[in-house]
């Protein structure tokens, strides 16, 4: 009788363990495809949310163009955050997502960065700045203007100041905004046009040049939920919540007024 009770308890324990393990293994992921410049805040917010809700939020990062094209080809994403409207529009035209309405989750601005140990005084960049002379024999890195939103914003900004022509031959195109930052961190480029959020997240670079606020392009990070799963929509709402705002701002992002 005692042996039988022991066997029943053991079997019950094994069944509970197996069912728990099965649930953990088969827990649906919440997959977020986002612009690489959102690396730090998104990973932090996903960690906070997973700890509080027992979910499995997974963040995949890259150029907005790359992320949009992967989703277009069938990549299993639940949420998409683009660094510009062009690639959001591209995705919405390429695929039909029921009730997918983009909202602005965060905003950014552009700055000129250099290595932390470079001795230079910060300055304001305007249409009178001899930027090519500042760069000298070095290189100016930015996201590839042909497809990377950060590089497209940078080109538009420099063109608006009449500075594009004088620095065009010195530009090194990077695969995405984070790669541009890392090239300056590693000394592979002397200067870079970067998002303020990327500069704020690094202890290896500093902001050396500021652009006039009136000339700054409108940099909105647009977000959509790609399906109506309740767990996906809950995390989507969390990213827009008052609880998430301090995290976005801690990593250099601005909130829409």
Automatic annotation (TrEMBL):
Signal peptide start-end:
1-23
> InterPro entries in the record, alphabetically?
ModA, ModA/WtpA
DNA-binding among keywords: no
Per UniProt, the keywords (alphabetical) are: Metal-binding, Signal
Give the NCBIfam families listed for this entry. modA
Q: Does the keyword Phosphoprotein apply?
A: no
UniProt-recorded name of the protein: Molybdate-binding protein ModA
Family, similarity comment: Belongs to the bacterial solute-binding protein ModA family.
Membrane-spanning residues where? none
């Amino acid at each position: 009788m005692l042996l039988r009770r022991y066997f029943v308890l053991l079997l019950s324990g094994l069944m509970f363990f197996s069912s728990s393990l099965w649930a953990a293994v088969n827990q649906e992921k919440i997959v977020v495809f986002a612009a690489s410049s959102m690396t730090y805040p998104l990973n932090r917010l996903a960690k906070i949310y997973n700890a509080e809700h027992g979910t499995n939020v997974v963040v995949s990062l890259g150029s907005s163009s790359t992320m949009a094209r992967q989703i277009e080809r069938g990549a299993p994403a639940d949420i998409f955050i683009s660094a510009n409207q062009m690639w959001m529009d591209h995705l919405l035209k390429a695929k039909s997502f029921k009730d997918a309405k983009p909202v602005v989750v965060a905003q950014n601005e552009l700055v000129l960065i250099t290595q932390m140990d470079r001795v230079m005084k910060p300055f304001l960049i305007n249409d009178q700045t001899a930027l090519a002379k500042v760069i000298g024999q070095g290189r100016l890195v930015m996201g590839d203007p042909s497809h990377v939103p950060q590089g497209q914003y940078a080109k538009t900004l420099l063109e608006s100041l009449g500075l594009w022509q004088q620095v065009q031959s010195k530009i090194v195109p990077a695969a995405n905004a984070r790669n541009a930052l890392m090239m300056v961190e590693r000394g592979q480029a002397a200067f870079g046009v970067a998002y303020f959020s990327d500069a704020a997240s690094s202890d290896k670079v500093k902001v050396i040049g500021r652009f006039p606020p009136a000339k700054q392009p409108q940099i909105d990070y647009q977000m959509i939920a790609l399906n109506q799963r309740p767990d996906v929509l809950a995390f989507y709402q969390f990213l827009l919540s008052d609880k998430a705002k301090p995290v976005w701002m801690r990593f250099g992002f601005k909130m829409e007024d």
